[in-house]
Amino acid sequence: MLTHLDNQGRANMVDVTTKAITERAATACALVHMQPQTLDMIQQGGHPKGDVFAVARIAGIQAAKRTHELIPLCHPLMLTSVKVHLEPRPPQHVYITATCKLAGQTGVEMEALTAVSVAALTLYDMCKAVDKDMQIEQVHLLDKQGGKSGHYVRAEGKTAPGGQP
C-alpha cells in the first residue's frame, strides 16, 4: 500500500522503487472569472504588459516542471510533455487546461494541477491592476491515465461553465 506515512506514522516520500515504469498522463483544469472588459482587453492584445495568455502558458509549464519544489513529498519527475491551453469563454471566463505526460513510476496529477493553478494565478497577477474582483474557480483533475490504478475520467456533469471539461 502506498502512503506518505512510515512505520512510526511520520510523513515521508512514497518509495516507488519497485513500481513499473509506465506511460502516464494527467489533465487538470481551472476557470478564471473576470469582468467582460478585462477579457476583451486580453483578447484584443491591449494589455500594457503584453501577451497575457503567452506569459500564463509559460508560467504553467514552468510550474509543472518544478512541482516537487512546491508540494512537499512530491517526486521530482522528468516530464516528457507539458501542454497548457488557455481558452477564452466570453463574456467573462478563461478556461485553462494542462496535460502532463511521462514514462515513469509515479503519476503526474500534481504537476497538471500545479500548472493550471499557476497559469490562473499568473492571469490574476497580470490583470489585477484593472480587475481585482477576478476569481479562480473549479481547479480539478479531469483525466488520469497509466499506473496501477488505471484510467480515471471525471464524472459527467462536473465540468466548467460552457460545457466540456
What key phrases describe this protein's structure?
165 residues, alpha+beta, Alpha-Beta Plaits, five-stranded antiparallel beta sheet, disordered C terminus, Cyclic pyranopterin monophosphate synthase, EC 4.6.1.17
Task: Walk me through what this model shows.
The active site is at residue 125. Homohexamer; trimer of dimers. Keywords: Lyase, Molybdenum cofactor biosynthesis. Its EC number is 4.6.1.17. InterPro entries: MoaC, MoaC_bact/euk, MoaC_sf, MoCo_biosynth_MoaA/MoaC, Mopterin_CF_biosynth-C_dom. The protein is an alpha+beta fold. The chain has a domain at 31-145: Molybdopterin cofactor biosynthesis C (MoaC) domain (Alpha-Beta Plaits). The protein contains 4 helices and 5 strands, in the order βαααββαββ. It has a 5-stranded antiparallel beta sheet, covered by helices on one side. Helix 2 (52-65) runs antiparallel to helix 4 (109-127). The protein is elongated, with a radius of gyration of 17 Å. The two termini are 31 Å apart. 37% of the residues are buried. Mean pLDDT is 90; it is low at 160-165.
Number of strands: 5
Helix content: 25-40%
Structural class: alpha+beta
- Mass-distribution shape: elongated
Strand content: 25-35%
Termini separation: 31 Å
Biggest sheet details: 5 strands, antiparallel
Order of helices and strands: EHHHEEHEE
**CATH-defined topology of the domain at 31-145:** Alpha-Beta Plaits
**Strand order in the largest sheet:** 2-3-1-4-5
Mean pLDDT: 90
Count the DSSP helices: 4
Task: Give the low-pLDDT segments.
Answer: 160-165
